[in-house]
Amino acid sequence: MQNDGSVWTWGNNNYGQLGTYDTLNTSSPVSVVGSHSFIMTGAGLDYSAGLKVDGSIWAWGYNEWGVLGIFSTENKSSPVSVVGNHSFISFSCGPFSMIALKSDGSAWTMGRNTCGELGDYTTNTESSPVSVVGDHSFIKVLSRTYNCFGLKIDGTMWGWGLNTYGQLGILSTSSKSSPVSIVGNHSFVDIGGGYDTAFGLKIDGSVWSWGYNASGSLGIGTTSNASSPTLVIGNHSFISVTPSMWNTSTIAKKYGGEIWALGGDIFGTGLRSSRSSPVLLYNADSASIGYSNLYYKMSDGSLMSTGDTLWGAGGARFVNHQTSPVRVVGYHIFSYLSAGSNFSSAINSDGSLWSWGDNGSGQLGTNSDTRYNFPVKAVGDHSFIKISCGTSFSLGLKSDGSLWGWGTGLHGRLGNMSTNNQSSPVSIVGGHSFIKISASAYSSYGLKIDGSIWAWGYNAYGQLGILSRSNQSSPISVVGCHSFIAISGSYLTMSGLKEDGTVWSWGWGGYGRLGDYTTSNKSSPVSVVGNHSFIQISNGCLNTLAIKSDGSCWAWGYNLWGNLGNNFTSDSSSPVSVVGNHSFIKILASTYSSYGLKIDGSLWSWGTNSFGLLSTNNLSSASSPVSVIGNHSFIDISAGIYFAMALKEDGSIWTWGYGSSGELGDGQECPYTSSVAVHFYQEYRYAKR
To answer: Which of 309-313, 367-371, 540-544, 679-683 comes out lowest in average pLDDT?
Structure first.
């Protein structure tokens, strides 16, 4: 819901629950039809509802049980008013029933009533509002799967409906069709409930829970069910608690934005094992948990989502991929970024290193091989000024010129006289002092202040530039009396830029990669042909980009997908101009695509568009530059094999492309293989009295 009262929805729409007059699914937000202005919204099982300032409730979507309250069981694909001359102040959507509260404290229910969840002494389904029996005056009401709960001003909590697992908190498992008081002398300030669970929040920040607990979602240190309120362990002080609808997990928020989780998997967070006590997840302004998604509202108003992207429920524009930029989760202020093969790293403003994505070789530097789809801090008290990521390994440069490596040590690419993997940073041997670094696919490079380049790692194609093809596990100087000012390594090729603007390349020469009019490999530097004077270079997997002082971009190498940006698809073994009269300040040649950044912060892309690499909101390749969508203003870019990332001036990182290993950092994982519906429930935000 936006500030103007308009409601925007996305995801599955087979029953019209998106309110768009149709049943078409959408993976990006669309506006609910009609000139409606709501002050509160909610969603249940394939239906949605909104409350207006006049007290009327409007609902749309699935209506088999009459949950829309319109005297029928007909589905609706646009908002319709709940019948009766009622004036409500709030409401809560369960999967199959809805409960609404009036200013006099009376509660009214509608929908399915199999277990007495409507609280009217019956088990009859109702397609219009009926009053909950008893002279009760509630200040908050809550509808869950087979239960409803009400909170009174004296802090007592009342429940009714199914009680198989003790979720009514009455020291028994007998179901009730009218309100009964939760046992114990408790005074709650807010309440929450899941499929078969219930929670109460007290003024001291303690949370009490009861009901089903097989996955530890009650947070009481065991996996045993509880039929009366039990204190969540850990001496925590929370301001809100929100369980998932399916008993598996719970999230709770503290002051300062800390989001804690307990129970089974919180989809998309990388925490797959059950936990019976709270663990810290992220920092966010607010959060809401659904069937298989977790939604975060950040301080800048942006909405982040983790978990299943089936039907686009996470707000993603393509299942398991992102074809437009999404923000990396967390309150980080990054100053430098680098994308590896299928992982990402960034330096925070304090010099600390944070990484996410694949970690099978320890390339995240966390002293483990656990994969994360959100930023995690590397171990050790390191402060880096630059980071460069290759294939399953990383290099980090410090202000004193020392270089550190971690991840796979295959071929000696960590430069520590070993080929063993390292899951935390280790120092490159030799007492070298570098000013620039570059991690390619399987090799590493460092540039010194005297202009010399040193190389180590894989060398089958002569990419180390040492006149041989032998691998090296420690730095060795590139041959020739060369003095470079910039370096860029890629798949099997290396390039260096000199002060006179000439570019020199060596290694694999396939597709004309070296720009020397040949396709031959070279084990020492050769000059790129043409009377060009460049100021910046970027070596991609199969092609190279360079820009001149006027901002014009030139390219050479592989071009099947339009990687050279010259409106053709034929390879070139010498520099050709990228079309379009563009003026770039930074360029990037990645594995399959190319990027150019302009002084106004706009980003342009060309080449293959598999998985949304070009970020054009479609999957069409481009042989000339096209603008990245979203009116973003970036200051830096980097890219891995199937994804890209960009940095903004505010320190936020935005990513797009393929995210199967968590490399997008937005918390999302692979889509699930079974067809399961995705639903989310309204966010509950609490404040202490």
So the answer is: 679-683
Q: Which residues contact 583 (CB under 8 A, 6 or more apart)?
A: 550, 551, 552, 598, 599
Q: What is the pLDDT of residues 385-429, one digit of tens each?
A: 999 999 999 999 999 999 999 999 999 999 999 999 999 999 999
Query: Is the Cβ–Cβ distance between 234 and 258 less than 8 Å?
Result: no
Buried-exposed string 81-93: b where 16+ CB fall within 10 A, e elsewhere: ebbeebebebbbb
Residue 597 has which token pair?
Answer: 């950044």
According to DSSP, residue 381 is labeled S
Under the banding of pLDDT at 50, 70 and 90, the label for residue 673 is very low
Q: What is the dihedral of CA 513, 517, 519, 520, to 10 degrees?
A: -110
Global confidence as pTM: 0.57
CA 6 to chain centre: 25
DSSP collapsed to 3 states, 341-370: CCEEEEEECCCCEEEEECCCCCCCCCCCCC
User: Which amino acid is located at 632 in the chain?
Assistant: H
Beta bridge partners of residue 108, listed in sequence order: 100, 131
How does pLDDT run across 237-274, given as a tens digit for each residue?
Answer: 887 777 765 545 566 666 666 777 776 555 444 444 45
**What does residue 522 show for φ and ψ, rounded to 5 degrees?**
-135, 135
Q: Cβ–Cβ contacts within 10 Å for residue 483, how many?
A: 14
Q: What phi and psi values does residue 310 have, to the nearest 5 degrees?
A: -55, 130
Strand partners, 140: 151
Quick: pLDDT tens for 145-182.
Answer: 899 999 999 999 999 999 999 999 999 999 999 999 99
User: Could you tell me the sign of the dihedral formed by the alpha carbons of 25, 330, 340, 422, in that order?
Assistant: negative
Do 442 and 455 contact (CB within 8 A), yes or no? no
Q: What is the spatial distance between Cα 78 and Cα 74, in angstroms, rounded to a whole number?
A: 12
Q: Which residue has the tokens 């089936």?
A: 310
Q: What are the pLDDT digits (tens) for 188-200?
A: 988 988 888 999 9
Tokens 């892309």: give the residue. 605
**b or e along 174-194 (b: 16 or more beta carbons within 10 Å of the residue's beta carbon)?**
ebbbbbbebbbebebbbbbbb
Tell how strand 534-539 and strand 107-111 pair up.
Answer: unpaired
pLDDT one-digit tens code per residue, 464-489: 999 999 999 999 999 999 999 999 99
Check if CATH label 3.10.450.40 holds for domain 8-183: no
3-state secondary structure of 106: coil
The two three-digit tokens of residue 101, written as one number = 């509260």
Give residue limits of the domains in the chain. Answer: 8-183
SS (H, E, C) 227-278: EEEEECCCCCCCCEEEECCCCCEEEEECCCCEEEEEECCCCCCCCCCCEEEE
Residue 307, C-beta contacts closer than 8 angstroms, at least 6 positions apart: 266, 267, 268, 290, 292, 293, 294, 313, 314, 667, 668, 669
